[in-house]
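Our preliminary data section would be incomplete without showing what the modeling component actually yields. Below, a chain of 707 amino acids is followed by its predicted structure, encoded as tokens that our downstream tools consume directly.
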Amino acid sequence: MRKFILTILLFLCTLGAFAGEGMWLPFLLQEINEKDMKAKGLKISAEDIYSVRDGSLKDAILIFGGGCTGEVVSNKGLVFTNHHCGYGTVNNLSSVKNDYLTDGFFAKNQGEEIPCPGLSVRFIRKIEDVTASIMDGITEDMDKETRDKKIKARAKSIKEKAALESGLEISLKSFFYGNEYYMFYIERYNDVRLVAFPPNGIGKFGGDTDNWAWPRHTGDFGVFRIYANKDNKAAAYSEDNVPYNPKRHFKINIGGLQEGDFSMVYGFPGSTQQYLTSDGINETMNVLDPARIKIRAKRLGYMEAAMKESKANFIKYASKQARVANYYKKWQGELLGLKLNDAVNKKKAKEREFLSWARKNPVRWAKYGDIIDKQKALYQNKEQNELQYNYIRECLRASELVALGRYGDSLLTVNDLYSRKDDFKRIVKRIASGIKRMDVETDRKITTALYEMYRTKFGEANEISDQSVQAMYSSSVFSDISKLNTLLDSQNPLDITKAIKEDPVYLASKYITTENKKVLTDLRPDIISLRENYRTYMQGLREQSKKPLYPDANFSLRLTYGKMEGLEAQDGMQYNMYTTLGGAVRKRNTEVEEFNMPQRLVDLYEKKDFGRYATWHKGKKDVPVCLLSSLHTTGGNSGSPIMNAYGELIGTNFDRIWEGTMSDINYDVNLCRNISVDVRYVLFIIEKFGNAKWIIDEMDIVETRHY
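Predicted structure:
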């Protein structure tokens, strides 16, 4: 009986290892994952997902902006991504008169689409394994500095050659802590325009209260379009540009979903640390996350108070508050999940297994026997420096005014600037823009409070004293553009130099830069040693493992697969696989901004005007809003397509449940779920709420369920 139970447990553990866990490189799917994916329900081939010869699904996946994913959904370059991914861009396009955040935006035709200055999208055209070329002649007995220099020089040479030959951008990344290297060929498009963007009462419905939580009713999507020149090539914005014709775009399936359906997410996960030792997890749980949560709570209090004061302040801080709040709540969920999962003790158990395996072979023991102890000593040694580095980033760098002090060095070269008037004007314009984008009084409150937190923890300094902070906002030329212009109009280099060098904002900026460099200098030896040890440790883990391991996320193209499923999150708490518009309407509260759903959407619900996007829920028709699935995602996967077994779009990924945010460090299929907005809700909002059926008409929509 005992042997039978152990066999069943082993079987379940094996299932768990592939039940959604893993961020796999798409060009290796055929070699590593295709058989398993087919067994779990995949109906297309690995070649359909990734191919360099023909248009595959990878050619419909893109990097949206600086840190999100998007997907092409028509042969006219139409792109879906998340509302929160486009939020900063739309914030910049908004004004008190045209508040696209509060009111939303739905173009009536292509002519009404709004150019988005500074926004670009990038496609991966090819991935190439260059490990052999990078590592040729690199030996384990080289000292770290020599080894790093040789690798960097070789990587630079390989990238330059590839860029010259291909005419594309090249990104070369290390995997498994420097055990493997892959090169990515990238094509960038710079003319991107806004097509549709739901109002906050849909796209941010639930706000911070529901962020990282379930049940979720957020229509977290935005629609953009890529434009190209008449030869379909990337080009700067021009009225003569035309919609981009992609190599591949997604078909959209509105046929319905069931619990257990095979599903995939394809995109650009940002960063994970799945192979941290127990001491690394302990540092996150007991040192870093608690400090970061405490600091951001203070900062958010002032931001949210300012946003309630006026429409102007709301627009100034809407995107900033969302960015700060996102990880504030994520870190809280991460702590909860790691505690619920007993992550440190589980990792220690795995480390004991690893050492037991290594001990059985003298060669392995010589290489791996002391690796865990080495990491423990390094984590202990760097703890205070790591904490101070995070305090500098979270406290001292939070001040928007002090951030403007970085322009002081440019102003000190004023003699040169007067001979280069265009450069001079550009610097002054940037400072003026920075002042305009903040509420000075709110920034003063934030800076005062957070600088005090830093001083309490790491000691006083004149440059960031309370007296200096108050002087920044009362007398600094960086806080008042008229003062700066008066100073610069004097055209006396000695007066300008003296004023800038004595300015409290400039002094604080220089102090922060110096302090940060000092802490990083102290940290660097430990970080380098940790990285080198992890490189060795990964060699051992891969040697020990009986199945392929996936590399940590590093914002490179990945695919994860699993199934549509809810979960029992905690005792007595059942999470269903999907939510509905009816549930959202019941949450509506016009007195609370986060839940202030537009009346027009309520009217559509009450009239049951759902079009073809409804499903049967508890005997009634309703529109599905959000979905749960057991897919391994993280930041960067925001905007990623979630697909069915046929590679058809069924939704757009945007979040994880609170208990499962630990998945960056410790994925557990029993606790980790990703959240997506159902594509049926997206299309319903575009067509019925936004009256923009013309957008729907250019998509390829499949109305049948294949299974």
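Residues 1-18 have pLDDT under 50 and may be disordered. The first helix runs from residue 2 to 18. Preliminary results of this kind motivate Aim 1 of the renewal.
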